[in-house]
Design brief:
Layout (H helix, E strand, L loop, with lengths): L8 H28 L4 H10 L4 E2 L22 H15 L4 E3 L10 H10 L3 E2 L2 E2 L23 H21 L3 E4 L4 E2 L7 H16 L7 E5 L9 E2 L4 H11 L3 E6 L9 H10 L3 E6 L16 H17 L7 E4 L8 H20 L3 H9 L3 H12 L4 H11 L5 H8 L1 H9 L8 E2 L5 E3 L11 E3 L4 H15 L2 E2 H7 L4 H13 L4 E3 L2 E3 L17 H4 L4 H16 L10 H11 L1
Parallel strand pairs: 1-2, 2-3, 4-5, 5-7, 7-9, 9-10, 10-11
Antiparallel strand pairs: 6-8, 12-13, 13-14, 15-17, 16-17
Helix pairs in contact: 1-13, 2-10, 2-13, 3-10, 3-14, 5-6, 8-9, 9-10, 11-12, 20-21
Length: about 575
């Protein structure tokens, strides 16, 4: 598990010290109960300590719906801060040592450095996730009508190239799998050929599969509907397993608990996939109506137990081949994401532990005798057993907390991050999805809607700025402030750096390519390079500065929002 911790060790030790006696008493009592059933509680605890589940990088942030998003003070704004929060989750529960990244949401310039950073926090990387369900800033072709299944081969090639890029990044991070989920489908009958779209999918996936390293696997994720509402190309486990069988041994099926029709028997699907060697892994969450991405175990904990019951049987049937990937995949809209991931991790390992205490011999005997009620009661006995003392003591022995959520609240982590991260909400922008992306509405001045991420990395900001310049020739500061989600000071520094690098020139009202055609007249602006504009209208600027200085002397508050004008105002304000 590693000894690294972002939270003070004393915080956890003090927390545990108050509760340790109670945990040990409860553990002893449960041990006596299980002993009467012929179960060794210490053996179950050892299994619990070996269990782990990955957390998603995007799960560390506040999600949202297509209607709104409610930002939270202290939420992470980049992959580095997401890793910090994921490390806190693992430090408290000691069962989430891996993070599943998502690209391009988690693009960075130095992946070797990111891997070292994660390892310093006691973390590794799980399966990488590709994204072809939305267009990226500067993308020349659109996934509007499909990605891996698009009728336009150039679009399919773009989607394939992105997935291969994710594999290359994953190799640097130490990942050993790629999860491929696409939103491709149709909203109207006749929109596409239901047969040929699957053929195109298989052709695209073969190209990606060919680039898999020898020790990697491809996890194919199915989803019944959304964003497509008439048909989805990989809509169910049948489509998924057919594709996996066509692609090869390294292709397996990933089961997201929320990606099925209501009341589908998911545990039976798990049993079928495991039986034919195509169960690749899980995205754990919960749902009431559809793909709700609610906290795991919050709605239907019994189903979660039944899934793990099938997993327990699959492992016993073929232990050498049993190696499913476990990951939490949720959207935390109104709760602290750290608390939700801690709650979900406990629900998952709790279901695992309950499945471990099922009396398998008794269950099989009931089945052979067709004693239906006795078989049901055997499962129900395990499900109704409170295994929390096992989980708590396992966490303590691994260096975690008795009550992870309570210990987290005592630590004051979120309050400290709210002071340090300083990521204010963006007025007027509604959330689009669980990754913390925002959908700009029409901001006027010809600014079209575009998906952007809150507080981008410098490399992402540069990509957006230069792409806009290539497309438009001139970009106003107003448009940049809407397209690039960064503070005005950060944006100004970016532009100065890009100008120094010879990639653009700042002109009055905006920026244009270095040595390019002056496009500013179309915006009713005079394109003058910033360094030349400093001395234009010098007398007027100095007069403004003097007037501002007089107001300050009278105790008035002023707001300065100027470019070259500000440079002439400051000397008078300092007098």
């Amino acid at each position: 598990m590693g000894g690294y911790g972002l939270l003070a060790r004393e915080t956890i030790e003090t927390h545990n010290g108050r509760l340790l006696d109670t945990v040990e008493e409860d553990y002893e009592a449960l041990g006596n109960t299980l002993s009467r059933r012929g179960i060794d509680i210490d053996a179950i605890k050892a299994r619990v300590k070996d269990f782990s589940v990955a957390v998603p990088s995007w799960g560390a942030g506040i999600g949202g719906t297509r209607f709104a998003r409610f930002p939270m003070p202290g939420e992470p704004t980049n992959i580095h801060e997401k890793l910090e929060d994921c490390a806190v989750v693992n430090q408290l529960c000691r069962m989430t040592p891996r993070v599943s990244p998502h690209f391009p949401w988690d693009f960075v310039a130095d992946y070797d450095g990111l891997r070292d950073e994660a390892e310093d926090m006691g973390l590794g990387f799980d399966a990488v996730n590709s994204n072809t369900f939305q267009d990226q800033p500067g993308q020349k072709l659109s996934y509007r009508y499909g990605s891996l299944t698009a009728t336009d081969k150039a679009v399919r090639d773009l989607a394939v190239a992105h997935n291969i890029e994710c594999i290359k990044i994953g190799e640097k991070l130490g990942s050993r799998a790629i999860t491929v989920w696409i939103g491709d489908g149709t909203n109207f009958p006749g929109q596409q050929s239901l047969r040929l779209s699957l053929d195109r999918y298989l052709d695209s996936m073969r190209a990606i599969y060919a680039e898999l390293p020898a020790d990697w696997r491809m996890l194919i994720e199915h989803k019944l509907y959304e964003p497509a509402f008439y048909s989805t190309v990989i809509s169910d486990w049948g489509s998924s397993i057919l594709a996996a069988q066509q692609l090869g041994e390294k292709a397996q099926c990933l089961v997201d608990l929320g990606h099925h029709a209501p009341n589908v028997n998911i545990e039976q699907i798990v049993a079928r996939l495991a039986r034919f060697g195509k169960l690749g892994g899980f995205h754990f969450n919960d749902s009431k109506y559809g793909d709700d991405d609610l906290d795991t175990g919050s709605i239907n904990p019994h189903q979660l137990f039944l899934v793990f019951n099938e997993l327990a049987e699959a492992e016993r049937a073929d232990p050498d081949a049993f190696d499913p990937s476990y990951m939490i995949d949720q959207s935390h809209n109104i709760t602290d994401p750290i608390e939700s991931m801690l709650s979900s991790a406990e629900a998952i390992v709790g279901a695992f532990a309950r499945a471990e205490i099922v009396d398998r011999a008794a269950l099989e005997e009931c089945r052979q005798k067709n004693d239906v009620m006795a078989a049901f009661r055997t499962l129900r006995l395990a499900y109704s057993t409170d295994v929390s003392p096992i989980l708590a003591l396992a966490r303590i022995e691994a260096g975690g907390a008795v009550d992870p959520i309570f210990a987290y609240r005592e630590s004051g982590w979120r309050l400290r991050k709210a002071q340090e991260r300083k990521a204010p909400p963006i007025p007027g922008r509604a959330s689009y999805n669980s990754a913390g992306f925002n959908l700009d509405k029409d901001w006027g001045d010809g600014v079209s809607p575009v998906l952007m991420r809150v507080n981008m990395h410098a490399t992402e900001r540069d990509r957006v700025i230069l792409s806009l310049l290539e497309e438009q020739g001139f970009v106003s500061f107003r448009e940049l402030s809407h397209r690039v989600t960064a503070s005005p000071a950060t944006l100004r520094r970016d532009l100065e750096r890009l100008q120094t690098d010879g990639k653009l020139v700042r002109v009055r009202g905006g920026v244009q390519p270095m040595g390019g055609v002056d496009h500013t007249s179309a915006h009713h602006l005079q394109g003058v390079p910033f360094h030349e504009n400093i001395n234009r209208n010098r007398a007027a600027k100095e007069a403004i500065g003097k007037a501002a200085a007089e107001l300050c002397k009278r105790g008035e508050a002023i707001i300065i929002d100027g470019g070259s004008t500000t440079l002439h105002m400051c000397p008078h304000l300092e007098q």
